[in-house]
Design brief:
Layout: E1 3-21, E2 24-38, E3 43-48, H1 52-55, H2 59-74, H3 82-92, H4 97-115, E4 131-132, E5 135-137, H5 142-155, E6 159-163, H6 168-182, E7 187-191, H7 199-208, E8 216-218, H8 226-235, E9 240-242, H9 249-258, E10 263-266, H10 268-271, H11 274-286, E11 290-293, H12 300-311, E12 316-319, H13 323-326, E13 338-339, E14 342-343, H14 357-363, E15 364-370
Parallel strand pairs: 5-6, 6-7, 7-8, 8-9, 9-10, 10-11, 11-12
Antiparallel strand pairs: 1-2, 1-15, 2-3, 4-14, 13-14
Helix pairs in contact: 2-3, 2-4, 3-4, 5-6, 6-7, 9-11
The protein binds magnesium ion.
């Protein structure tokens, strides 16, 4: 089974409401879809959602890497040879993890279809039956965030990830407002997205949040400052998670060597796809760290790829793939798998997602075919 053709689609996924984090505001989500067709006529789907702030990949650059560097060299390769495919991609372009993730996901999808099994069956089998799904609250005024949290509790959510990262004083007010509104039994995780910059600000914030009861604190300091995470971890009882600071093997090696985190947030778009995420998960497990599969807000394709990794690994203790709940239009049908407050992964072959190609055409801004 060899790759005959790769189609690349630049699309724009409309969000129900803007997604706001400390470093940007997204009115809609640009995404790159890859359609892989084999000589035997099977089709696999992949997706790249590059985040310029996190991996340095731009949307345009990722599209160009796929079109000019990766896709032409992959024609004729067997998509079931994951190790070989990754070695080939790494020899062509350093880094570029989102572009590589798109190829990797399409290869896993088509391999599952070829073998008649879900992707999770290729990477360890089903471990988790279902996962609680967390609602992500965009940064807003304390009262607005508290109100949204209350609405989501009424819908059935039992946990929140609060996006903060403006400044310590207003962020502490946001977190306290949500805690007061939802009560003690709802789990609250806080993602600062680097916004508190350093360990001094972070420890100051944590001192004011002692009574609030946080599940964990995610990426309070700038991504590259692993030593600041070491200091924070040594001075607080709140578990700390690294997100922007962990992309690849090199980052993971430093985090393990320095014991810099209790948890790591693995994203397919940061590490290069399903195959690499599995390898990072094994490294984390070896070091006694828990893992989360996080998201750049991917469509049904990228989100389901993340779920297959999460559902197959014991070391995965949370998932945050909520793209399909946040888009007003999606190219796949994963939304039906969300049974709030849980996500239930189906047993369909490959990614288990049905693609609506007319919706893909509607959302496509430009595309290319490489054969
Ligand atoms: Mg994060």
């Amino acid at each position: 089974m060899n790759i005959k053709q790769l189609e690349i689609f630049a699309i724009d996924l409309p969000l129900i409401e803007p997604f706001i984090v400390s470093y940007d505001t997204y009115p809609s989500m640009p995404s790159i879809i890859v359609k892989l067709t084999t000589e035997c006529g099977l089709v696999g789907w992949g997706e790249a959602v590059p985040d310029d702030h996190v991996t340095g990949e731009t949307f345009e650059g990722t599209y160009a890497v796929l079109k000019h560097r990766l896709a032409p060299q992959l024609i004729g390769e067997n998509p079931m040879n994951f190790e070989r495919i990754h070695e080939l991609m790494d020899s062509l372009v350093k880094n570029a993890p989102a572009a590589k993730a798109a190829i990797d996901i399409a290869c896993f999808d088509v391999t599952g279809k070829k073998l008649g099994v879900p992707v999770y069956q290729l990477i360890g089998g089903r471990y988790h039956e279902n996962f609680p799904i967390t609602h992500v609250l965009s940064i807003g005024e304390p009262e607005k965030m508290a109100m949204q949290a209350a609405e989501k509790v009424a819908e059935g959510y039992r946990s929140f990830k609060m996006k903060v990262g403006r400044d310590v004083a207003s962020d502490v007010a946001r977190i306290k407002a949500v805690r007061e509104r939802v009560g003690e039994t709802i789990a609250i995780r806080v993602d600062v997205n680097q916004g508190w910059r350093n360990s001094g600000n972070t420890l100051q914030a944590l001192a004011q949040l002692e009574e609030v009861g946080l599940d964990w604190l995610e990426q309070p300091v700038v991504a590259d400052d692993i030593d600041a995470m070491v200091e924070i971890k040594s001075k607080t009882a709140v578990p700390v998670m690294i997100d922007e600071g962990i992309c690849n093997f090199r980052d993971m090696r430093e985090i393990i060597a320095k014991r810099a985190a209790d948890k790591v947030n693995i994203k397919l778009m940061k590490c290069g796809g399903i195959y690499r995420a599995n390898q990072l998960a094994a490294m984390a497990e070896m070091a006694g760290m828990e893992c989360q599969i996080g998201s750049m807000l991917e469509s049904s394709i990228g989100s389901s790829a993340g779920f297959h990794v999460a559902f197959s690994k014991k070391v995965m203790t949370s998932v945050e793939l909520t793209g399909p709940l946040k888009f007003s239009k999606d190219i796949g049908n994963l939304r039906a798998s969300y049974k709030i407050p849980f996500i239930e992964l189906g047993t369909g072959v490959g990614l288990g997602v049905e693609i609506d190609e007319s919706m893909l055409a509607e959302l496509t801004q430009y595309s290319d075919v490489i054969r």
